[in-house]
Amino acid sequence: MHTTVGIIGGGPSGLLLARLLHNAGIDSVVLERRDRAYVEQRQRAGILEQATVDVLRAAGAGARLAAEGLIHDGIELRHDGRSHRVDFPALTGGRRVTVYAQTEVVKDLIALQLADGGPLLFEADVRAVAGADTDRPSIHYSHDGRDQTLTCDYVIGCDGYHGITRAAVPESSRTTYERTYPYSWLGILADAPPVYDELIYAHSAQGFALASMRSPYVSRLYLQVPNATDPADWPDERVWDELDARLALAAEPGWRLKRGPVTQKSVLPMRSSVTEPMRYGRLFLAGDAAHIVPPTGAKGLNLAAADVVVLARALEHQRRTGSADLLDAYSDTCLRRVWRAEHFSYSMTTMLHADPAQSAFDTKLQLSQLARIEASAHAAAELAENYVGLPLTQES
Ligand code: RFL
Ligand code: PHB
Q: Which residues have a Cβ under 8 Å from the Cβ of 279 and sit 6 or more positions away?
């Protein structure tokens, strides 16, 4: 089998790229190792930047998003037992974010691709990429119990942080910049209405907590926990009690989260990582395959979408004009946005979490920074601009 663009991974970046290419008349094949149900149910991101919403809409995946997405005009920050709001439209000239789960984005993109797009193969496990530095790279994968080969003009690694494509770049041709954090998140999904109509990010002596949501009936909640925590050590009542303690307000002593059945519980490590350049010959890396951020800034899915917009535009330009200029610029173009998001995600993470090794001095610095955001429109605008995200322009 031969295709113009071979896409490894059917997560948000691979699926959106396939759709953008389909709309531009460029054929592609998506190879996804897991089955459809698994990919559609994997709990992950919840916040879409306006630029991501616009891209999904322009790609034809905006109908359910428009009907069911929850538009958020701000977030609440809690610390020292009090809370203050960061008002996005007021601080950013009218920009806002949308709560629409990654699971739903993925379902919408899969339905479109299966309806009229190029092949999207589930349970197609890619083992190797060969000839990335030649004109005719190939992807070796197993499907239906058989070893198969797909030759391509271009191979795109959309296979996430644990994928194989990053390692297909010779070590001498890539550099990875990485940071791990001395804490993880315990995340739960609960059939309980969100406490509040916006997200709450809380700094507390016991550690960070985040109250998010999936719908008016379903809450998504996170607690900072030590690395290597076993979710079994966190029975539901312990999770709720700890959330109540970390989100507590001095002015509302009786304040409690609305509790409900916990339907999922898992522990997620926190890591920052960037691999440069995001290209080797005819192999391009996109999304989590090239970079990850700790989720405190809600940036991962949005970065993945931005990468594939830049890449689809570059492939279309190449097809139309014969020029590889935009493909040659792909890595540098993406990395400017990536490093901004890396810095923001790092800042939010280190401002809000309790590092087990931190001193009382460090805690005072965190609280001083939070108070500064509360007191200064300039400091709040810096957070708001980064949170709502950079617009996607012709150059980025
Ligand atoms: P994915 O989603 O990891 O998809 C990669 C796909 O590749 C497949 N694959 C292979 N297929 C074939 N052959 C192989 N050898 C393969 N190896 C892997 C995998 O099965 C998978 O389907 O990467 P992608 O598409 O780049 O998308 C990235 C996003 O998923 C990720 O950045 C976000 O989820 C990060 N993230 C958040 N991002 C946001 O923008 N806003 C948020 O609010 C937000 N919250 C989060 C998050 C990530 C989290 N976790 C679990 C890390 C919250 C959490 C808890
Ligand atoms: C989520 O709803 O899963 C979510 C929201 C905001 C974040 C991280 C995760 O910063």
A: 285, 327, 330, 331
CA angle 142, 147, 149 (to 5 degrees): 95
Spans of all domains in the chain: 2-70+101-179+271-354
Q: Tell me if residue 180 falls in helix, strand or coil.
A: strand
Q: Count other C-beta atoms under 10 Å from residue 137's C-beta.
A: 22
Q: Determine the residue of 123, 214, 288 to mutate for testing ligand 1's pocket, defined as the one with the most ligand atoms within 8 A of the Cβ atom.
A: 288
Q: For 346-389, how does the pLDDT look when each residue is reduced to its tens digit (9 = 90+)?
A: 999 999 999 999 999 999 999 999 999 999 999 999 999 999 99
pTM above 0.85, yes or no: yes
Residue 254: pLDDT band by 50, 70, 90 thresholds? confident
Distance (Å) from CA 368 to ligand 1 centroid: 34
Residue 324 exposure: Cα atoms within 13 Å on the Cβ side: 6
Give tens-digit pLDDT for 154-164: 999 999 999 99
Please tell me the CATH code under which domain 2-70+101-179+271-354 is placed: 3.50.50.60
Written as one string, the DSSP assignment of 253-274 is TT--PPP--EEEEEEEEEEEEE
101 CB neighbour count, 10 Å cutoff: 24
